[in-house]
Structures
1.
Amino acid sequence: MYLTAPFKYLLLLALAILLLATRSVIAGTAEDFHLVKGETLPEGFEYVPLRISGSIGDVHLNHTGTIEEILAKVADENPGFKIEDVLTSAGPAVDTLNTLDKRTKSDLACYPFSGQPTWKPVEARYIRDGISYLQKVTALCWVEGHKCSRISCSYKSAISLCNVTPVRKGLSCSYMASYAQDILNKCTYEVGIMRFVGGQAWDTQGYNINVYRDTSC
């Protein structure tokens, strides 16, 4: 069918408006998604196991669990693999808010959160270890739509990833670590000789990273 020039123009305009409307639905801050800041698990959401696909060094990854659980499985499957060596090995370069034009990173909030009494901070050293593990993998962290997954959890100190869109997402694990690093950089505080941290970082593409106390690990 032959389309006249005016009709083509109107069709392109309609498609542009539709694309803009779609982007406005999937891109925004916490308020745009009608979610409460400081909720580790939004109402109606549930935790599901994380799946990681990719590699760490020469080892192929296609596993479920937190990064700590996955590294333990890899060590069982590969006798020459040592978890303690992961922290000292080189990994992909990770961009934080200090080194990166913010791209789609949006709001970042630190503990405490008004009206969220269950949110508790954690020792910063355990979050730092979780970040280091995540930085060492060249892999995607997969989370289902309207679900949250713990991407790191040890010593009751968790980093979780929540996907607030209905679409399953595969996100760079090392890039997800950069959000936790942003929280570590901006939200760490001292109590005596101890250092604690808690916070939440959002991306306009419909996901957020939480750093908080989680008694499941």
2.
Amino acid sequence: MHLSSIVKKLTAVFMLWLVYATAVNANNSIESVRIWPAPENTRIVFDLSNKPDFKYFSLKSPQRLVIDFKNSTNNAELMSAIKADRRVQKIRTSRSKEKGTTRLVLELAEDYRVSVFPLAPAGQYSDRLVIDLYDKNSQPIATYDNSKGKRDIVIAIVAGHGGEDPGSIGASGTYEKHVTLKIAQKLAHLINKKQGLKAVMIRSGDYYVLKFRGSK
């Protein structure tokens, strides 16, 4: 047997062993990623096969958020999740020094306040890791001129659910979050037709409202 044939066979055996060892050591996998942009924040959700064992840190110049998933493999199409989000420019993998660790890097447009936390399985969702990016200099919803002693009565309208929270799902696949948003939009239109009244939509798109501004 030629030496080249022996080398090829040994290489093939080693590659098969490497694939097997990786599969055995990894007890978790990143199945998908979802991104929900909102006016003042963006939520990134990683869907996992099991509870995540993770750590994260930030890097500057350029601004990046790095997440290490221990004993995990990545099966997600990372870039396909990015829509027209102004905060997350790219999601990519990177090499970690820790064996069996999958490192994901979020390239960000600027420096944001970051919240990272796991979520247990619920309803149609498996284990998840959630990342919330908050604008540091958020603006109030609206301001009103009261210099003349008169102003509209402001009515806040909250459309329930949104983003990764679909609410109830009908037999034909209708999401409650879409129904509540349409009802809220129609209600706002009716209110704004009345003199002295002004409707403010707390949720105006398909995203989850994390909290009301001004709440503690």
